[in-house]
Amino acid sequence: MRIISLLIALTLIAGCSGTGGGGKANGPSSMPGASSPADSEAAQDSQVHDEAAAALAEVSSEIADEYPGFVHMDAVQLNGQVFQVYYWNKGDFAYSQFVIVKEGKIVFDSKKAGLVLEGGSIWNEEEKLWAEAVVQNNRNTFLFTLTDNRPEYASIIIEEIDGTMQVTVHDEVSVSYEDVDQDGSEDLLAIPFAAQSPLGPALTGIYQLNGLEYEPDKALTRQYAEDQLLSSEQEYKNNPSEQTLEQLLNAYLILGKRSAAVPKFEEFYEWAGQMAGDGGYVDKYARLLQETETAGQLNGWMDKLKPLRNTK
Q1: Which of 170, 205, 273, 294 has an alpha carbon 20 to 30 Å from 116's alpha carbon atom?
Q2: Neighbouring C-beta atoms of residue 117, cutoff 10 Å
């Protein structure tokens, strides 16, 4: 995936200009009439960066004519194409409407698509990108984080499918992409609520796109949870702490394996350099694991996964 913000493009231009000037001052190519392959290549690179920055910075004429007053613009390149996302706000958060522009042409309008937003939040403050833009499974994709389900998650995903921008997710989840099974295709990970401490794990479901709908892949969800258990155990063994122990116990709870975790505490004490009854954090979590009601609440949660909504 490739994400290039307007700020990054302009920084690259400044960097290339400064470097080129320094080279001419110190080398023989600075003499009148002299030229070198390095100078030629630098000039070509500078021209490419200039053109890229100009394309990213230019406000679409369609936006200027029909949608004045935007409060922010994202500018990115995906699959070698220039995309811009414009935002307007009539609420208390960062934005309440957005429009996606591809190569200067409007390809998606949240308002015309019937998306009613209480508000959206900013994805990356440092890069000044309000939405996450990625290429996944060769599809240009935009992920918007909403405030519509505070304090829990809400998201919208817009994907370019067969040349058309489509809403594939509009649901109360946090979303990301990862190649979970290492088959070369990225899978959608969705989490309905944040983890709570102590021993209130976040539940991560794995989904595959079918048409315009993401359906749960229960086998892959279980495999992902099993992998998380193995990695969490190794992490706790290598770096024992209260945090890594809780992460490990959460992995057991997610899989419905609380009973399997109990006899492992002998090892958990050993790895932490603690002993039963010494009042350390392993004692604390041994007691919490027995007392928590989380295990019962999580029973069979993978079998209850439903397709993600793409309308509200």
Answers
A1: 205
A2: 23
Nearest Cα to 104, choosing from 156, 65, 50, 139? Answer: 65
- Tell me the pLDDT tens digit for each residue of 126-145: 999 999 999 999 999 999 99
Q: How many residues does the chain have?
A: 312
Return d(Cα 116, Cα 95) in angstroms, integer: 11
Contact (Cβ atoms closer than 8 angstroms) between residue 220 and residue 213: no
Supply φ then ψ for residue 94, to 5 degrees. -70, -40
Is residue 37 reached through a cis peptide bond, with omega within 30 degrees of 0 on the bond before it? no
pLDDT in tens, 252-277: 999 999 999 999 999 999 999 999 99
- Beta-carbon contacts of 47 under 8 Å, excluding residues fewer than 6 positions away, are none
Residue 143: closest CA among 118, 169, 105, 178:
169
Look-up of token digits 């029973």: 299
Residues with Cβ within 8 Å of residue 310, at least 6 apart in sequence: 167, 168, 169, 170, 171, 212, 213, 214
Task: Write down the residue that tokens 């609380």 correspond to.
Answer: 258
Distance CA 159, CA 136 (A): 9
- What are the beta bridge partners of residue 220? none
